[in-house]
Each structure stands twice: as structure tokens, then as C-alpha cells.
């Protein structure tokens, strides 16, 4: 058993997983340590994605982990959460790539696709032979996407014509398929479409000069009379409620990513405190440093207990939207505090990438915002507990 004083899982929650699940996590940890960690800083600095990683991920059996059938493993949401955590504790950018592909893109097809669409896409995506992206956010519609979506879909015989723009779309510069959400001009309902790479009228442009998740290849997408066959319209996506069902499912994963990002910063700060000496002794022996470490560990432990229970509720089919929103809001807020304490503990060295914590501090800002800001998730929970909607 791993010494829990050396990791962020202080209450040994992962030990409750079955042995075969723990073995999968051990294989993933070894993979991330050898294939991702050594070059994470370099890819982040240069805003480059390690494309050679994609084929290697296919052999791990972790894409669509909690989905049943269609080449997916049918394992628990709890295990899926720990997988997201492991990615984020090493590199939140790769965790985001993975979450977009396996959660948002595959999840849209799994929840909203027809049987034919599931059979066509999910097995190849589970093997990472095809990579997915998810296009909801627009330049002028982020938190207000439910009402403010301006990308349109117009039926023209056996085709749909998509027009509009999308922004911040992870993986979209190279994805084989992008799920585009657009408003049907005929009835105003939001529908989902599978747009394949290279489709005429579909132009993704890489967004440059980000301060967070620099390895993620986010795109600004132009849709100019992009024609999509009726067979590529998601068969069971007929309103924004269907879009929201995908987001509710994946919001759990983002909360797990926040815990992983916190653990990544904490473990690096803990290691630094044992090696860095001032006044003739390791700084880990000073009261103020120990106080910061314990605050970080408390944040992590509270968040990890919350997301683990959330995943158990998800496995039992009892998770609600407000429960997912509370976990996302809480875990990301505690993440911000935790990575800040890790950087503070390192003093000036905390801003040097060689110590890695600065990368976690920057990446935490993106995790804090995407898949619903703290404020929006607070309003979802507030509506549930008071019975009053404070949305505009």
C-alpha cells in the first residue's frame, strides 16, 4: 500500500477500488510518469501537443471507461474519476485533452447519438483511432449558451447547413470529429451535429498566447454554410436539455481534474519543502510551512471526499445537477487556494517552470472557469436549496 503521507489521497479513498481497478490506475501512473511528465513543461512552453501520445493511450483501455458497450469498458464512474485525477496531477493540459475526447465528445455520442452513430464512432474513439472535440461555446455565448447560442442549423433536403462561430474548442485543430451544437432555425431548438475534419465550410484556427492549458489545442471555429448529412445529426439531441445532460455528466470529471491539479501542486511543494534548506535546515521543519502544507492537504481531502461520493451517486443513478455543480464550484475554488499556497511555499522559485508548480497555478485558472464558472454553478445550487431562480 502506498504511504498516504506522501500523496494527496490522505484518507486512502483509492484503496476502496477493486484490485483490478487499482492495477489499472497503477499502469496509468507508470505511463504518465514515463510518457507525459518528462516533456510536460516543454510542450506547455511552446504551445505544442504531443501527438505521438494519442496512439499510445489506446492501449490503456481508459477512453469511455464508464460507458457500457460499443468497445468501452463499462467500469465505474468512481474509477473514471480517479483516472481524471491521475492525468491532472501530472499535466492538466493532457487531462483536458482526455476529458474533451472521452467525456464531452464521446459522451455526446453515447448519450445523444443513434445506435448507428454509436457503433460507427465510439469503438474507434475508445481505441483513440479517432479523436473528438466538442463545440458549444461561442465568442459571445459562454455562460449564456442556453439562450444565447447564435450558430444556426438549416435543413436543406437530406443535409443541414451550419453557420456561425465557436470559440475555445479544445482538440478542434486536429480532431477527426467535432460535435457542433447549433440552433435549428425552423423551431429554435438546439441540436447536435457530427462534423468531420476537412468538411467544406468548417475552419478551425488555433488560439495562441494563452496563459493556461497551453498544451491544449483550442480553436476558434468558423462555420460558413458547412453542410452536414442528416445521418450526422445526433439522433437524440433535440433541445438544450440534451446538451445539459452531457455537461452534467462531464462536470463531475472536471471536479476530479481540480482535485488532481491540487494534488500535483501539493506533492511538488511537499517534496520541495523536504529538500529546500534555509537557516541550516529543511523548510519543511518550520511551523509556517507545515501550516501551509496542512491547509493544502485539508482542501484536497475535503474535495476528494466530495467528488468520490458524487461518483458513487452517479454510479447509483442518483446524481443530480445541483450535486455536480456544488462539487465543481467547491473543488475548483479550493484548487485555486491550494495551488496558490504551493507557489507561496516555494517563494521566488515558485514561478520557475523547472519546479512545475507555476504551471499548475496557471492551468488552474482555466479549470476554474470551464464547464461552468463558480458563479453559474452557485446559482444552480442556490436555486435547488431555496426554490428561487436567481438567473437573469
TrEMBL record:
Pfam families per record: Acyl-CoA_dh_1, Acyl-CoA_dh_M, Acyl-CoA_dh_N
Q: List the residue ranges forming a coiled coil, or say none.
A: none
Cofactors: FAD
Q: Where is the Acyl-CoA dehydrogenase/oxidase C-terminal domain?
A: 245-385
Which UniProt keyword terms apply here?
A: FAD, Flavoprotein, Oxidoreductase
Q: Give residue ranges for domain Acyl-CoA oxidase/dehydrogenase middle.
A: 133-226
Provide the Acyl-CoA dehydrogenase/oxidase N-terminal domain boundaries. 20-128
Annotated InterPro entries = ACX4-like, Acyl-CoA_DH_CS, Acyl-CoA_Oxase/DH_mid-dom, Acyl-CoA_Oxase/DH_mid-dom_sf, AcylCo_DH-like_C, AcylCo_DH/oxidase_C, AcylCoA_DH/ox_N, AcylCoA_DH/ox_N_sf
Q: Which family does it belong to?
A: Belongs to the acyl-CoA dehydrogenase family.
Q: What is the name of the protein in this document?
A: Acyl-CoA dehydrogenase family protein
Species of provenance: Fodinicola feengrottensis
Q: What is the lineage of its organism?
A: Bacteria, Bacillati, Actinomycetota, Actinomycetes, Mycobacteriales
Amino acid at each position: 500500500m502506498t504511504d498516504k503521507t506522501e500523496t494527496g489521497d490522505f484518507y486512502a479513498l483509492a484503496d476502496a477500488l477493486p484490485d483490478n481497478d487499482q492495477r489499472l490506475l497503477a499502469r496509468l501512473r507508470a505511463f504518465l510518469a514515463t510518457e507525459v511528465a518528462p516533456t510536460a513543461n516543454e510542450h506547455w512552453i511552446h504551445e505544442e501537443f504531443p501527438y505521438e501520445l494519442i496512439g499510445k493511450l489506446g492501449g490503456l483501455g481508459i477512453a469511455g471507461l464508464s460507458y457500457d458497450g460499443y468497445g468501452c469498458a463499462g467500469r465505474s464512474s468512481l474509477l473514471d474519476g480517479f483516472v481524471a485525477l491521475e492525468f491532472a496531477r501530472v499535466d492538466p493540459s493532457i487531462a483536458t485533452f482526455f476529458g474533451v475526447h472521452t467525456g464531452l465528445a464521446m459522451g455526446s455520442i453515447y448519450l445523444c447519438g443513434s445506435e448507428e452513430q454509436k457503433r460507427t464512432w465510439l469503438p474507434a474513439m475508445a481505441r483513440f483511432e479517432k479523436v473528438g472535440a466538442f463545440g458549444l461555446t461561442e465568442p459571445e455565448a459562454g455562460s449564456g449558451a442556453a439562450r444565447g447560442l447564435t450558430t444556426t442549423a438549416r435543413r436543406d433536403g437530406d443535409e443541414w447547413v451550419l453557420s456561425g462561430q465557436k470559440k475555445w474548442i479544445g482538440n478542434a485543430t486536429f480532431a477527426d470529429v467535432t460535435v457542433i451544437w447549433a440552433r435549428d432555425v425552423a423551431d429554435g431548438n438546439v441540436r447536435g451535429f457530427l462534423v468531420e475534419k476537412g468538411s467544406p465550410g468548417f475552419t478551425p484556427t488555433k488560439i495562441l498566447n494563452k496563459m493556461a492549458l497551453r498544451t491544449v489545442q483550442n480553436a476558434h471555429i468558423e462555420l460558413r454554410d458547412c453542410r452536414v448529412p442528416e445521418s450526422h445529426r445526433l439522433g437524440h439531441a433535440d433541445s438544450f436539455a440534451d446538451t445539459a445532460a452531457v455537461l452534467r455528466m462531464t462536470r463531475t470529471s472536471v471536479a476530479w481534474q481540480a482535485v488532481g491539479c491540487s494534488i500535483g501542486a501539493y506533492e511538488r511543494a511537499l517534496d520541495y519543502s523536504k529538500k529546500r534548506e534555509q537557516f541550516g535546515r529543511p523548510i519543511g521543519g518550520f511551523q509556517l510551512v507545515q501550516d501551509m502544507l496542512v491547509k493544502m492537504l485539508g482542501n484536497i481531502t475535503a474535495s476528494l471526499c466530495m467528488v468520490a461520493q458524487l461518483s458513487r451517486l452517479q454510479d447509483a443513478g442518483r446524481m443530480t445537477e445541483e450535486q455536480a455543480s456544488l462539487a465543481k464550484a467547491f473543488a475548483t475554488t479550493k484548487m485555486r487556494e491550494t495551488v496558490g499556497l504551493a507557489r507561496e511555499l516555494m517563494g521566488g522559485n515558485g514561478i520557475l517552470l523547472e519546479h512545475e508548480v507555476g504551471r499548475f497555478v496557471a492551468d488552474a485558472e482555466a479549470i476554474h472557469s470551464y464547464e461552468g464558472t463558480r458563479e453559474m454553478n452557485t446559482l444552480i445550487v442556490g436555486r435547488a436549496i431555496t426554490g428561487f431562480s436567481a438567473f437573469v
